[in-house]
Amino acid sequence: MVDTRRMLALILGGGAGTRLFPLTQYRSKPAVPLGGKYRLIDVPISNCINSDVVKIFVLTQYNSASLNRHVSQTYRFSAFSDGFVEILAAEQRADSPQWFQGTADAVRQVLPHVDIWNIDTILILSGDHLYRMDYRDFLRRHDETDADVTISVVPCGHEEASEFGLMKCDETGRVTEFSEKPKGEVLDAMRVDTGKLFKMNAEQAEARPFLASMGIYVFKYEYLKKMLAENEEWVDFGRELIPAAIDCCNVHAHLFNGYWEDIGTISAFYRANLDTAALLPKFNLFDSSAPIFTRARYLPPSKVQNCEVFDSTISEGCIINGARITNSTIGLRSRIDAGAHIEQTVVMGADSYQSLESMQADFEMRRPRIGIGANSLIRRAIVDKNARIGAGVRLVNDAGIEHLDAPDGNYFIRDRIIIVPKDGVIYDGTVV
Q1: 348-407 tens-digit pLDDT
Q2: How far apart are the C-alpha atoms of 6 and 163, rounded to whole Å?
Q3: What is d(CA 430, CA 432) in angstroms, rounded to the nearest whole number?
Q4: pTM higher than the cut 0.90
Q5: Dihedral of CA 220/222/227/229: which sign?
Q6: Measured between alpha carbons, how far is 375 from 1 in angstroms, rounded to an integer?
Q7: Within this chain, do residues 194 and 332 fall inside the same structural domain, yes or no?
Q8: Which domain holds residue 101?
Q9: Which residue pairs from 206-209 have beta carbons closer than 8 angstroms and sit at least 24 positions apart in sequence?
């Protein structure tokens, strides 16, 4: 079995996150809030901690300030442990003058920081996926097959298959073929018998006939160093390094049939957040055997007066008065005034409470205070942190607009979902 004391995890969090705009306008993808009180980066870090993987580097590049702050304030191990969670920001050096050019290049550039830890196994993770995995099972598979590389794979359907790297493997689980985001006939050629591999019935196998890479890899460390050193033009795992490894080395698949969601688009983010409030959520935040950790904020309990709340979650520190909330997630320090209706909406809350002086200044400037004003209706929306939504506002998108950027930048529409960005202001009586 792989000794977790001699392994290290690298979490890739440096992408620009353009498909999640405007949520990534001021933050990196892994720093995007999740489920009312968490951030996306909490998921892979918690998976590591729950799997006894406690040497963790998080690689950052774009809009990394809030991610750096969250990691440094949240994850602190005992002085008697050799565990750590540290940020490795993209840096320019004499031997490496460029920023990260891709996933593999990011790992190549930080290897000098990894070398000092005397490891023999490295776990490569993504910072923007939602799933719960015990990496010890993954590592056991890697050890039992004596693989140079082990790739975690999940069965997927035809509609989403072209968005992932797809694989084929033989009866032993050794990967024999890899195709990065195939289309058309190439996509159809990547079908496999997932029923046999995952012990699914015929109907399930027909619905998910492809093996998709989860973007999670275990490498023998010396092998990864050798591959990256000998092929300096390779910048991406999926496009270059993994296909080359399959041709020359021992590459195996680790089969994962649990819930996994790539939070790469606004619609995926929206669905995943609302699902956390479902009766039987696909990603259960109440699993005490594998908790999701986050920053301890020591907030007061939420105060809910004269409200109707259905199938929703409400985080700490909220003040909600006379509102109706349905199928929604309400984030930290949210203020929602009387008569407001919140339906199928993700409300992220606020970073801090407003003082009475600040609210008085808003009143004098005729600007809404932070939160959601009286008698407003918000349906199928995402309200980012510190947003100010006035009284009598209607955010409903009755026209079914698919994509829109408001001229003033105070709201956007993606996949028919209205998004009020961080610090956005929607004045009294506005209708969208």
Answers
A1: 999 999 999 999 999 999 999 999 999 999 999 999 999 999 999 999 999 999 999 999
A2: 34
A3: 7
A4: yes
A5: positive
A6: 60
A7: no
A8: 4-275
A9: 207/157, 208/155, 208/156, 208/157, 209/155, 209/157, 209/158
